[in-house]
């Protein structure tokens, strides 16, 4: 099996030496997404709910490019600057799934790229 690089304009271009996602067989490994507008690279900061929505929509764009959607997600990793905002992030996150939720960890971190409040990555499979 070869790895296949997934690239879409529906999510922001990488800001470092990595790809939006890599598919290997039926597995898709999606890099962490932050609240960057895929159209112009504008960073949204402020409201954690809006930040999370942008992140989830970026993930959706990458999943769709690989022929998948959130029903294919088997694992998510959520990185938060403030665990006190977990419930707000969780409310937005939950709207993207319909039952059979993926495995997940949520951790508070000391810092995230560009000073954002939340970063989320996923692993999906067909």
TrEMBL record:
Entry superkingdom: Bacteria
InterPro entries listed in its UniProt record: RidA (IPR006056), RutC-like_sf (IPR035959), YjgF/YER057c/UK114 (IPR006175)
Pfam families: Ribonuc_L-PSP
CDD domains per the UniProt record, alphabetical: YjgF_YER057c_UK114_family (cd00448)
Similarity comment: Belongs to the RutC family.
PANTHER family hit by this protein: 2-IMINOBUTANOATE/2-IMINOPROPANOATE DEAMINASE RIDA, 2-IMINOBUTANOATE_2-IMINOPROPANOATE DEAMINASE
Database matches in NCBIfam families: Rid family detoxifying hydrolase (TIGR00004)
Record's protein name: RidA family protein
Natural source organism: Rurimicrobium arvi
